[in-house]
Amino acid sequence: MPVYNPPLRDMQFVLHELLNVSDEFKALPKHAETDVDTINAVLEEGGKFAAEVVFPINISGDTQGCTLNRDTHAVTAPDGFKDAYAQFVAGGWPSLSCDPEFGGQGLPFVVNQCFYEMLNSSNQAWTMYPGLSHGAYEALHAHGTPEQKALYLPKLTSGEWTGTMCLTEPHCGTDLGLLRTKAEPQADGTYRITGQKIFISAGEHDLAANIVHLVLARLPDAPPGSKGISLFLVPKFKVAADGSMGERNGIYCGGIEHKMGIHGNATCQMVLDEAVGTLVGQPNKGLAAMFVMMNAARLGVGNQSLGLTEVAYQNALAYAKDRVQMRSLTGVKAPGKPADPIIVHPDVRRMLMTAKAYAEGGRALACYCALLLDKEVNHPDEAVRAEAAELVALLTPIVKAFTTDNAWEATSACQQVFGGHGYIKEWGMEQFVRDARINMIYEGTNTIQSLDLLGRKVLGNQGASLQKFGKQIEKLVKAEMANEAMGEFIKPLADLGQKLTQLTGEVGMKAMSNADEVGAAAVDYLRVVGHLVLGYFWARSAQIALKKLAEAEEEAQRPDPFYQAKLQTARFYFTRLMPETSSLMRRIRAGSDVLMDTDAALA
Amino acid sequence: MPVYNPPLRDMQFVLHELLNVSDEFKALPKHAETDVDTINAVLEEGGKFAAEVVFPINISGDTQGCTLNRDTHAVTAPDGFKDAYAQFVAGGWPSLSCDPEFGGQGLPFVVNQCFYEMLNSSNQAWTMYPGLSHGAYEALHAHGTPEQKALYLPKLTSGEWTGTMCLTEPHCGTDLGLLRTKAEPQADGTYRITGQKIFISAGEHDLAANIVHLVLARLPDAPPGSKGISLFLVPKFKVAADGSMGERNGIYCGGIEHKMGIHGNATCQMVLDEAVGTLVGQPNKGLAAMFVMMNAARLGVGNQSLGLTEVAYQNALAYAKDRVQMRSLTGVKAPGKPADPIIVHPDVRRMLMTAKAYAEGGRALACYCALLLDKEVNHPDEAVRAEAAELVALLTPIVKAFTTDNAWEATSACQQVFGGHGYIKEWGMEQFVRDARINMIYEGTNTIQSLDLLGRKVLGNQGASLQKFGKQIEKLVKAEMANEAMGEFIKPLADLGQKLTQLTGEVGMKAMSNADEVGAAAVDYLRVVGHLVLGYFWARSAQIALKKLAEAEEEAQRPDPFYQAKLQTARFYFTRLMPETSSLMRRIRAGSDVLMDTDAALA
């Protein structure tokens, strides 16, 4: 059976040494009191909850899956899911980073980010039930009427009710402009909504008393395409003005999908049959309102894959130390055993280090983004808020696509460490791989993320946002260029930064005469930028580790193995993972013709 | 529901235009009469069998899986599997390339290779039942006594009985030297075999009347390690001297594994309790005898992944033409539709072309190897046989590891084309990915394949075998270097060949002082050689296509779209897939220290 230990030490490193979050919080009035001890205490308790309550029902949830009663339209989650959710609510966990005005604890997003990483490591399928609520909460918080907020936000905050995002229809996923669900205005100011939605995660279940669906639909007079979409709040049970739950609304689960993974989460076909809803935000501006949810959801998907990378790594490491098979090529390492533990083999280390470097680098990136969100929302200086928002917008597609692609590689590598046992369900490794696969698809496929990055976030403003992030790299490079010990990290980072600048210019020029150049370059381009960003965090991590190790040496203390580990992992990252960029850049420069002149091949 | 159309046209291209097999057969007395029409007719019928009988039970077999009756130890395969197997036997398909001396049809291996590709495309799990028999057949054919051959080969040939390979035990997979199963000699010349085996594919099932297990075990006086292993024939039902089946032997299925994929194939824990067996080959030489099976099996595993790549490609292509979503970045392409078919998007084409290039390139490589096997076994000239054997030995780990890694990438890319639908079972795409995953693990993990290639097949003879293959590349380069139209293929191929020569020398030098350099380089090295080999076949394919297109132009005929497609796919391969080698070579040159100096990181 798999194991999971919350990576508290590395989270503390990222939060307190790399990002110095409590110093940053001093500038944010709402979080000025959030100190190191508070954060550590919350994460320690949160880690216990994840490892002790949610993790033990991960494999059983996958094996059992969800069941739909076709007569009652009721969905039952796997055994233990409901009870774990009740404990989650009783512990106050749903409200961690919610607004105190609606009953939240008002902790920073970056703390919630770490908590959710641990939940995702423990059980991605279970974590999607509360996770989806956050999106609904954010959309209502940003765009709801005072009445909607008063009625729904306290219940979403406490976790008594959960939320969903109802976007996709059978004929449209990426292209929401095609959606057909209709909303008919009623005399009382409500709407009657009719249509069919698919792929609705946590669309129906038995964990919470009510489910708050946020539904995209068209008003009768709406213009065609994406400019005619409005957002509606459609509760499973109607809610009276006093907050009491009334009769069942006309929104039902018509079927649940049988999927590759995340079996414990109900992926529902939802039928709306004159369901009563209320408008959220302005008519025909639903897509913009929904994007509040989608951006949060995209960061959340990156976090799912970060969690899976970490837990897959921990299990592969444990197995590699335990399993004995063959002798080291350089001579016997465990003479008392019939063979050496497989961790002596270089390629086993390659697979393990790949997962470790992506997990720890991904954690730094994800926390950095969450801290930017805290600044975007709470910093008193508008200019700081705006810059934070700009960087979050730039980094969101990278967190989503780069982290999830890396998790696919890393979880598969960790599965490979187990040999044949990695293919067998009881070891848990193959589930991590299957669960990780959806993260590259939902909330905008990774292709869509890459078009968002290259087309909108980079070429859309002539690289201005990218240059802002680049300034941080330049600063680091200047500060450390004379430091010989940092050369192995700084040089490749600076080199990649220069190459990316040139590459971006080339692609931008080509795209001016042929828009397909953007589509042809985008996926590889996102990975190049991803490596630049991750390289920055790995160089910063190495910088801190070198400093700490030097301090220990000066004071004749034993070096802390944690910092030695950071340094070794940084070295691995720069020599074994970042070099992927040379091939990616060659592929990008191959241009779009070789892709588009394929009509005979794809006939 | 997925579709499958046997790729007969491309098989004919590979067999008759690229490899000219019927010309080659003229030098092989046994196959001198095997002409183009015979081959095409067999493959056409074989394709029908695969697509019409085996393909329709692929998804249902995955959903249902196998069941074990714990009282009787009987395993029942999914519905339809037994009937399809009966049709397979009735049609004479098991005997296609078997020795006529034992009832076989004596057709070349390369024909059987193409037939099995189609079976694997249709249903990998089902195909493993007859597929495993081939390994047992080969081992008995090579090492069996006249009595063993007379008793068992006709039944394996006809398919009345199936075979297995019983190698792995709970504590040893890669490291067979650790195995513990015991064989006690009896007065009558038989042996009583006791022990436990795991991961035995098709170890127990209801498709055939008897199962012929080939079991590795130790004699009482055997030396420790891999030099003390012997091979035994252990039938499920004992067989009398007259060929009649007797009582049940002491070999039972004790459990079946729940796996990520290939659910339709029973992966069995086999308990041997004083099972009666006979020795195959010499005492303590079992591993060598087993390698006959394992090499065939490794080529077979590559073929499984080739089949999955092809079928995943076909379905993704069909979906990409049918599904409309978003408009082309360069303007509306399907004005009569609400959106353009997604095949207009460059990244969708990238995913499709990746699968196509790996499928067609992999087919050329696999058929080339199968033809070499035909020469190795049947060529009258010993020198030709020896050279064929040497090239097969070199290419076997490449076919196994490169093809299966590529299939993992390709099937996942094809799944991605489907967006959210790719994650749903009913579309079939996620099953291709799950099934493909095992191929990187069994019959020697891909890490083991890479060590076999770099350590034994390349450095083990100072690159002599690799140079033999390189001579063919040199010949092509010389022949075409003045041909401008071939430049885009010949130059990168020649360039990679030179770089590989230099790289091999570097790695060899470093390995002399540190054996871990082999383990650190091997996996990436195998991919570099894989690209050189595939690049050769793509350049050859382009050469033929250019010639055919030029001929058509000379004769003012319409160009055959098949050759245009080949050319486009070759261009894609050289500009988008082969460039991976530049990163791989950078990683290899990073050396082993960065992997092995990770004790703190992997503590």
TrEMBL record, chains A, B:
<dbReference type="InterPro" id="IPR052166">
    <property type="entry name" value="Diverse_Acyl-CoA_DH"/>
</dbReference>
<dbReference type="Pfam" id="PF00441">
    <property type="entry name" value="Acyl-CoA_dh_1"/>
</dbReference>
<comment type="similarity">
    <text>Belongs to the acyl-CoA dehydrogenase family.</text>
</comment>
<feature type="domain" description="Acyl-CoA dehydrogenase/oxidase N-terminal">
    <location>
        <begin position="82"/>
        <end position="160"/>
    </location>
</feature>
<dbReference type="InterPro" id="IPR009075">
    <property type="entry name" value="AcylCo_DH/oxidase_C"/>
</dbReference>
<dbReference type="InterPro" id="IPR025878">
    <property type="entry name" value="Acyl-CoA_dh-like_C_dom"/>
</dbReference>
<keyword id="KW-0560">Oxidoreductase</keyword>
<feature type="domain" description="Acetyl-CoA dehydrogenase-like C-terminal">
    <location>
        <begin position="471"/>
        <end position="598"/>
    </location>
</feature>
<dbReference type="InterPro" id="IPR006091">
    <property type="entry name" value="Acyl-CoA_Oxase/DH_mid-dom"/>
</dbReference>
<feature type="domain" description="Acyl-CoA dehydrogenase/oxidase C-terminal">
    <location>
        <begin position="284"/>
        <end position="451"/>
    </location>
</feature>
<dbReference type="Pfam" id="PF02770">
    <property type="entry name" value="Acyl-CoA_dh_M"/>
</dbReference>
<dbReference type="InterPro" id="IPR037069">
    <property type="entry name" value="AcylCoA_DH/ox_N_sf"/>
</dbReference>
<keyword id="KW-0274">FAD</keyword>
<dbReference type="Pfam" id="PF02771">
    <property type="entry name" value="Acyl-CoA_dh_N"/>
</dbReference>
<dbReference type="InterPro" id="IPR013786">
    <property type="entry name" value="AcylCoA_DH/ox_N"/>
</dbReference>
<dbReference type="InterPro" id="IPR009100">
    <property type="entry name" value="AcylCoA_DH/oxidase_NM_dom_sf"/>
</dbReference>
<dbReference type="GO" id="GO:0050660">
    <property type="term" value="F:flavin adenine dinucleotide binding"/>
</dbReference>
<feature type="domain" description="Acyl-CoA oxidase/dehydrogenase middle">
    <location>
        <begin position="165"/>
        <end position="274"/>
    </location>
</feature>
<protein>
    <recommendedName>
        <fullName>3-methylmercaptopropionyl-CoA dehydrogenase</fullName>
        <ecNumber>1.3.99.41</ecNumber>
    </recommendedName>
</protein>
<dbReference type="GO" id="GO:0016627">
    <property type="term" value="F:oxidoreductase activity, acting on the CH-CH group of donors"/>
</dbReference>
<dbReference type="InterPro" id="IPR036250">
    <property type="entry name" value="AcylCo_DH-like_C"/>
</dbReference>
<dbReference type="InterPro" id="IPR046373">
    <property type="entry name" value="Acyl-CoA_Oxase/DH_mid-dom_sf"/>
</dbReference>
<dbReference type="Pfam" id="PF12806">
    <property type="entry name" value="Acyl-CoA_dh_C"/>
</dbReference>
<comment type="function">
    <text>Involved in the assimilation of dimethylsulphoniopropionate (DMSP), an important compound in the fixation of carbon in marine phytoplankton, by mediating the conversion of 3-(methylthio)propanoyl-CoA (MMPA-CoA) to 3-(methylthio)acryloyl-CoA (MTA-CoA).</text>
</comment>
<keyword id="KW-0285">Flavoprotein</keyword>
